[in-house]
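Q: Two folds, back to back.
A: First:
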Amino acid sequence: MPALPHFIGWAHTRFGKLDNPDVESLMAEVAISAIEDAGLEAGDIDAISVGVFGAGFSRQSFDAALVGAAEPMLARIPATRSENACATGSAALYSALDQIEAGRARRVLVIGAEKMTASSGADVNDILLGCAHRRTEDGAGSFAGIFAGIAREYADRYGNPREALALIAAKNHRNGVRNPYAHLRKDLGFEFCATESERNPVVADPLLRTDCSMVSDGAAALVVSADQPVSGRAGVAVRARAQANEPMALAARHDPIAFDGARRAFREALRVAEISLSDLDLVETHDCFTVAELLQYEAFGLAEKGKGAEVLAEGRTQRDGDLPFNVSGGLKSKGHPIGATGVSQHVLAAMQLTGEAGDMQLSTADRAAVFNMGGAAVANYATVLEALQ
């Protein structure tokens, strides 16, 4: 069996409304930093894999070449760009892993980035709605509207999840206080997250502002290698990974709130890794909306259908629970710069596994899972990471 590819270096900007004028400057902030963190030089990199959603956030395209424009030392290294909606960062990472596992590269720099806050609110809304199936779902009015429909269907079938959604939002914002990269480092509390107010209005009924991830700028980078780390760090092995897709249109699925693609990807990654949920120490998951995290509990096997609220009531996914979810604060607190998200999730999980997570650090972190999805659980990516001894 060939050696597992692993992460040997990384870098991460703060997420939020940043002064960086564009994606080029965001990528420049992390590219060389990640290479140096790995104990390498630019010439040691065989390929570059870039994740930028784009889709109208900027007039500039050809984002793979922007890495070399920002850092001339990287301009002659083969670079390609991946795009897969909100899973763009993981798509770029999996492309890099494919190159390494095929023997076409030894070390690949993966960069995920997005500049969103320079666009108007109306433009952001329209761009993100493109992650839904326009022909059948444009009437939802926004991507939040898509997930609001999912939340309403869940309520009709299983009962109002308002309390569960507020518990997820409060948990992730509380965790985000510890994350120096997070867009919003504020413990909002359960009552605020549970209650409609002037400061927490309805975005798309029944979702409140605290149920929706924020529009953010940011970038993250990883060096993925077939070789052992040279920087003295133990490194993080990619023990298993899986991707599963579902029809883009919710109406084309057998059950639009079952998140079957998420279930298949996550459980396949565990199967390939030859582990179970109980073997994981943490999960970084895609809480673009609080109802998404709730449904992922059920898809991943933490709870039966309609019983996700019980996981929260028992405190199982809290920081001190038996399987902490989103100790980084998740997309809810950290922010969601589309192309950067998947790379960021893997970086923050890697930091936990190497004991470098600072105030976020868990007392035990040997094995982690990362779940990143594009659209309403259309493109689903699940990765199992393990600390190298």
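A: Second:
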Amino acid sequence: MRIDLSWADSYHHQPFLSEIFAIAFVRGVEPIDAMHRIGGHSDTLAERTPEDIRDLHEFEHSYPTVVSALSLGEWTVLLQPNSFELVHLVDALSRGTEAFALLRHDYASPSFDHAVDGKITTHFNLNYPDMRGGADRDRLLPLMRAAGFDPDHDEGDYEQVVAKALRLAFRITGVLPTFEQLTEPLPSMHFDSWFARTRPSGSEADPLGQAESIVAELGLGATPGLAGALTAARRGERVVVAPDSELGRHVREWLALQRRASWSLNSARSAMTDAERQHGYRFGWLTTALQGAFRPDLA
């Protein structure tokens, strides 16, 4: 079967796909549920094109991360048309099933990550398929070779590697979205990976202690639901915060403050003072600490 994948490594202004985009596949999970698995916000559900998602990446919108979804047979396909977080969420997508994600990233490391039931089985850099990791690093070798990768070659491969990754996706799933399907209006949600059941990114030895310290520093002790959550975490309990809960909405606001502080340096430097930006960074440290404190089962 001949599939046209010339679009995968090309540049697209209209219809839009960035030179940084991620596509994930998850088996047996409906599109809405798949978006919820990565921390999707139900109250932001709307049909959007990649151009619509790109246009939301502005200071006044707090630079949201947005994902869209479509169903192909028993698989749901998720698309981030201008970012990369999906490749870090395959563990959350794969719980109870199988999932994988591929990343085009023209300025860093394009990659492919495969997971089964919450565990990364195979990971590799698209440019260096000989350098693999994961619990079963050679699991995909026959399919990788059939898709055009040469896992025995260590010189580096930079030719049409995203197309090869999509051919690998087809070898795994038997389905593949077309460029037209990916760029048409699709159901989409804002999401924050903070709410996903994925391994916390922070490495603090005492994330709970750090969280309590920053809460006191920022005067957030009266935030609804926060004191109870911190107390439960102190008892060693797992704390789950939903995006649409009262505490979850505050966490979303804190995450938005951190994004504004970070992204405004690139696109809206005058929109915040240095003091406001530093204040926003502290909310980033807080949410990272909270994630580590609330999810000891994943740490």
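Q: And?
A: The radius of gyration is 20 Å.
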